[in-house]
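Handout, section 3.2

Students often ask what a structure token actually looks like in practice. Rather than define it abstractly, here is a full record for F-box domain-containing protein. The first block is the sequence as you would receive it.
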Amino acid sequence: MAGPFPPELVSLLLFELCQTLPRLWDGKSTSLKEYATVSRQWQYAAEQESGVFHTVAVRSNELDTFATVFGGHRRRFLRCLEYHIVLPKYARARCCLFETRKEQEKNNEAFTEAIQALFLLLKEWEARDVDQGPPLELNIKAHSPMDVGWRSAQDRYMVNLDYRDLQDRRWQHSFLRFSRVALGSLPILSRVTGFACNMGGTRSKDGEYRADNREFEGRSLVQLATKFPNLEAVGWIVEDDDLLYPWARKRRRQGFARALADNHGLWKKLKKFELRMQAGFHTYDTFHAPNLKEGDTARSSLTFALRHILHLPQLEAFELGSIVVGPSIFEAPPCNNNAPTSATFQPFSRLKILKMNISKLTPNGGYYFAPDPSQPPGTPEGDRYEDDYEDSESEEPAIELEDFIDKVIYEDSDPDMLTVEGKNPHGDTYPWPPRYGREYKVDWFRAIGHDQVLYHRFRIDTPESRSIFEGFLKVLKAAPGIQEARLQIGAGEHHKSAGASVSFVPVDEWVAECTDELEKMMWKMHTNEKTVDALAFFGQVKEWIDEIPGSDIRVEVSPKLLHELWPDIWPDRWRA
């Protein structure tokens, strides 16, 4: 066995090996870990240098094995933990049913128990390290072994052969909730500096299918985040498109908002906040948008809470995706004694990235864009889902699927089957859990504004649009270190639906190479060609941009009519 060497010498030898060994796509050496067999000292150094234990994915039912493998020195190598919470397995026949209340309660129990076990393990590790251990990023996800993408080969074969499958639609109306009672007993974890939910792609265990993960309640995520006093980065996906049950959706949003508003002051070190709410995209512009305001107040509680997050003193990156927020998102929040501020604090002084992609809908049940009064809306293209349609997602006639669902409900002896299409106790009128079929599909697409196709809101110069874009540009004016910014409302410029966007981004590399471009940043303005008041709106945007120091840089716009506002824009090829 090799004798002991000074740690510095071992590290130097491994560093030189890293420079000579073949490389993988991520830059790691292909066989450095083999040197871990030389001795215990080399094992420690090789495992640390190779990074093989820096990022690990663990299922909750494997936590004991994980604790054994990483309980020694390897726990200090761990930098990113992807924690898959394994939910109870359900019968193959139930793949064609939405989750019942009983199933959701069992899932919530499994979620709570899995988080408790993980927190206790990480706390035990912290107690064994004088410095509480190096920083750790935690990304939680959840699935059942019977979920599409996670099934065994035998289950997948049997479901395809003898049963029917809703796939990821099965939990479309389900949201995992952490127990409020258990929250008080969770330990504080000082090591966790990053907390994500459903971020990044996931491949199933056989590598064949891409797995869709379960959805978490936003309030539960905030409550878990309060256990991380050194939190620096947040990245969450929180579904917000369950319009079939508007009251339940509104309560989830408000619970999420209140949790953010009540606890944001605990995140004194937060640098990055990323939230995607998957609010959906409607195709029917006369769609009646739901009112999400809190009580009789004029404000949106979620918009109000996000204003506080945006004004945190250490914040460097703020990103919102596919979300319904109000025009006041950029306004300064009222004074809050719990907020981490100081006498010398200047809002946005550290902000580098500001990116927002928001819905055309506003929280008060309105729109950012308006119809053109000079043009009638026209006639919708027609119902997308007729009674005799075939369910393309399951590739079978819907009437056969309905018959099979009836058979499953009749043959299943569990009492929770009696609740399918039962009375909804949450204030919504639609039966819960619903029964999948032709009627459900029509009701669902009508609820989300996807039952017909009719775009006629092509007037973007509204008070709501002006307010939010003015606020966005005022933030850029106050942020001296901004490196990338974008505000987009609605669809992209090539979509049939209206949209508007303003971006402040680095110059494209190919542009710099082809034109010897010296500027590092550029403005981009885009809207739909059917927009009827683009010149009026972007004329005002131009005035706001001109107030920002150093804003006289390269500009890229589309469609062509905006060239009238920026006659010296690049590229010249658009001037045909």
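Discussion prompt for tutorial groups: DSSP finds 14 helices and 14 strands in the chain. How would you have guessed this from the sequence alone?
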